[in-house]
Amino acid sequence: MTRLHPFTLLALAAALVALAWLLPAPWGAAGTLAVAAVLALFSGAGLTPGASPGSTGTGMSPGWRPGLVVLRTAVVTAAPFWLFLFILHDVPTTVALGLRITTMVASVVWLVAVLAPARLVEAMVAAGWRAGTAYLFAATLSAVPVLKARAQRIVEAQRCRGLSPRGGLGPRVRALRALALPLILSALHEVDERALALESRGLVPGARRTPLAPPPDRGAERAVRWALVALCVAALVWRLA
Amino acid sequence: MSVRLLVLVPVAAAISLALSAVVDAVALPLFLDTTGTILATALAGPGVGIATGVVTSAVNTLRNPTFWPFVVVQIIVALYAWAAARAGLFRSFRTAIPAGLGLGVIASVTSTPISYLVFGCTTTGGIALTTALGRALGLSPLGACFFGSFVSDFGDKAVTFALVTSVLHALPRRTAARFPWALRAMGAA
Question: How many CB pairs under 8 A join A and B?
Fold first, then answer.
């Protein structure tokens, strides 16, 4: 499954979410959820145990079947929604919305598990997208863990200096400022360095990049993507009629 | 878009997402997930702000898929922040905090229909619980949903505007001057 073209994986996930909301509940959403669950269960095909191709990973560990871990992640993520739906709504509404939300969660968790960001960037560049657009997503994905680790270091450093993030609202807001300001300012100071690094590597406005290893985009996969679009349009027309 | 502004987008988006670690440390009921969008808009205008909002939502979606439909809110936040920057409302806390409270109202009005129609008001635990409180107080389902969104957004956006104002004034003048909108947003140009 990880060998499928990134656009095909994206189209599958998007179509499942769209159909979950377009088809009548609860059976339509139950059907899309069943498909999403099967995809999640078989997402491990071709994966090495203990490794995930996705950016955020799904906590795979040796000894677990990767597909089961993906499914478990989806169930754990969706469970709180069922609880809150049950508190706020009657049973039919809870079931209808719960199935739709779970389809959305399972589809995205599956997508994260099978789609490597680097392959997506290669596919986007090969499809003629500007390198800058592809850079936005890849750079954000890599910057988030770096900044989160820096935020943690700032929290520890400020605690060493006697900052207490406890007490009433006033001290907490002051502590928030003392923690957030160094993080944001340090990140902004990196903008020039990063811009210089990109310019020196030829990423300037309007420049075309050559993908190093573009994922193969077979005709059958393109046909599947168009079929998914047609299916969603047909479902929309059917519901509106 | 110049390379510097292109680089600002992922940096600002990552700021929005990394601030959750800071919020956890001070245990305040805040999201601050629009900080990067507002900051990028105040520094570089609406195009960069909207791009930051879209990228923030897209990357956040990988963590929690329910974030994607709220990309509309990020776009509206960027447009509102642009209007605030044009008016120089980031010049002091006295102007920024009321502007943030205004954004809180607009953001909750925008997010309520999405939260109500798509998720039945169960997007996050905090909002679901305040919605349940609204129902217990006798509000209609839609009214309770607005109550939940309003409680979470009102203070959050005011704090976010105050934080962005602090950042703009803490930036060295030479650094701020490299971004096209920063000085105007601070009322210094």
Answer: 179
